[in-house]
Amino acid sequence: SKAVTVPALLAMRQAGEKIAMLTCYDSSFAALMDRCGVDVLLVGDSLGNVCQGHSSTLPVTLADIAYHTACVARGNQTALLIADMPFGTYATPQAAFDNAVRLMQAGAQMVKIEGGEWLSETVRFLTDRAIPVCAHLGLTPQSVHQLGGFKVQGKTTEAADRLKSDALSLQVAGASMLVLEAIPSALGKEVTDKLTIPTIGIGAGPDCAGQVLVMHDMLGVFPGRKARFVKNFMEGETSIDAAVRAYIRAVKDKSFPGPEHCF
Ligand code: KIV
Ligand code: NA
């Protein structure tokens, strides 16, 4: 099949075709997910939790993400490959560029960074230099110590207004995509309607342009407590292949996320 590109994702959003994204950390799973038809693979810093056993994403290094990105790139053929920029690697536009180059050279086609309006200058700096950027708002796990835990965000009017203006600033600065994590469904819809770029939800309601889950969560492998937005797609299936296909089908036909996965 045809390679998924940044313009192709925008066209999917415009056509109302939901974007199915999964995290991935190694070559064999990349080949499997790609074969099943996943649109986007994310080498998430969630690898700190699911691969390394840490209780946050803060210990993950640039070398860790570069290593896993190279592994995933070798197994992938057509999905768009996004790499997370780890905690502390994008504090200034120049640092962000230098570090993003390493991830692009490892095989990433886009990098993801967590934060609001303060990152607009960085998004502009990267996109001017041919590095596509995915932004990430709402529950941003690298900010866990400021947020005081892994909690739903954007619940007050002020927080919701702030998130909406952050989203617009990041789009204006050149972001190609926006992940929205753990926010009320109504806010997920408002942000999606306000933007032209695709929004990708994880606990952000059914109206986002696409959905993402951590692979260990959607396969029921992660031993930790299960977040409300997680669905185990292995239930009722007899292979990982079938579970991944069931996830993609459920995203595309809008049966996932259901009300029980939303805030
Ligand atoms: O690291 C990750 O897996 C992520 C997704 C949950 C969006 O950032
Ligand atoms: Na992440």
UniProtKB/TrEMBL annotation:
Task: State the signal peptide span.
Answer: none
Segments passing through the bilayer: none
User: What is its cofactor?
Assistant: Mg(2+)
Keyword flag Membrane: no
**Which reaction does this chain catalyze?**
(6R)-5,10-methylene-5,6,7,8-tetrahydrofolate + 3-methyl-2-oxobutanoate + H2O = 2-dehydropantoate + (6S)-5,6,7,8-tetrahydrofolate
Reported EC number(s) for this entry are 2.1.2.11
**Subcellular localization, as worded in the UniProt entry:** Cytoplasm
Top-level enzyme category: transferase
- Which keywords, in A-to-Z order, does the entry hold? Cytoplasm, Magnesium, Metal-binding, Pantothenate biosynthesis, Transferase
Q: Which residues bind 3-methyl-2-oxobutanoate?
A: 45-46, 84, 112
Q: Where does Mg(2+) bind?
A: 45, 84, 114
Q: Which InterPro entries match?
A: Pantoate_hydroxy_MeTrfase, Pyrv/PenolPyrv_kinase-like_dom, Pyrv_kinase-like_dom_sf
The record places the active site at 181
Q: Is Cytoplasm a UniProt keyword of this protein?
A: yes
| Cofactor binding annotation | Binds 1 Mg(2+) ion per subunit.
According to its UniProt entry, the function of this protein is described as: Catalyzes the reversible reaction in which hydroxymethyl group from 5,10-methylenetetrahydrofolate is transferred onto alpha-ketoisovalerate to form ketopantoate.
The UniProt entry's sequence similarity note says: Belongs to the PanB family.
> In its UniProt entry, what is this protein called?
3-methyl-2-oxobutanoate hydroxymethyltransferase
Q: Native species of this protein?
A: Noviherbaspirillum aridicola
